[in-house]
Specification:
mainly alpha; Four Helix Bundle (Hemerythrin (Met), subunit A); 4 helices; 69% helix; elongated; binds zinc ion
Length: 119
């Protein structure tokens, strides 16, 4: 992969990272433990809200981790190299999915295995 291409992908990744971080900033904060409602019904509602929030955050964190990992790999010069077979991940695939860690072949193999395991 040439430098120009890598720079372009780096820009995309940084932009995505900024987007996710901005969304995270808008997420409502965890309610203070002190403000716990006395009413058990309210408490249950608050618990549900917290669970949703946790789920939402976990998903965001996974995205941030993936983006950060891609940037790390760029720094180390291993970006665009398949983690499984050491082959080159095609530029087309990286443009579609800049955080891809596997080449198309390995990704397909993995998905097939996952589908087989789910049966
Ligand atoms: Zn591969």
């Amino acid at each position: 992969m040439d430098n120009k291409k890598r720079q372009a992908l780096r820009t995309i990744i940084l932009k995505r990272l900024a987007d996710v971080n901005r969304q995270a900033g808008h997420a409502p904060g965890e309610p203070d433990a002190e403000e716990r409602p006395a009413d058990p019904v309210d408490q249950a509602a608050q618990e549900r809200e917290r669970d949703l929030l946790r789920l939402f955050r976990a998903r965001e964190n996974a995205e941030i981790q993936k983006l950060t990992l891609a940037l790390d790999r760029m720094e180390q010069g291993s970006y665009g190299i398949c983690l499984s077979c050491d082959g080159e991940i095609s530029g087309k695939r990286l443009t579609a999915e800049p955080t891809a860690l596997l080449c198309v072949d390995c990704q397909e193999k993995r998905e097939r295995n996952r589908t087989a395991a789910a049966r």
